[in-house]
């Protein structure tokens, strides 16, 4: 979530896992403390860039970053 420059509202933008506002490590640790064995379904809201090809490339980058990050948190 990003505040508009004029400070009248927000824009919801995707981010790779671990780079957004959700405290992923806290969520996973809390589940583990309760005896759960958590897993994840990754959904990325990739913003459209200048071209479809660049958007797909960004989505692939974010997916790889997210998977790498989640592998360090969920084990």
Automatic annotation (TrEMBL):
Name this polypeptide is given: Xylose isomerase-like TIM barrel domain-containing protein
Organism per entry: marine sediment metagenome
């Amino acid at each position: 979530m990003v505040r508009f420059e004029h400070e009248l509202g927000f824009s919801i933008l995707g981010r790779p896992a671990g780079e957004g506002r959700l405290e992923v490590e806290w969520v996973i640790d809390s589940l583990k403390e309760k005896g759960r064995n958590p897993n994840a379904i990754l959904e990325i809201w990739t913003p459209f860039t200048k071209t479809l090809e660049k958007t797909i490339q960004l989505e692939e980058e974010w997916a790889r970053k997210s998977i790498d990050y989640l592998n360090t948190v969920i084990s």
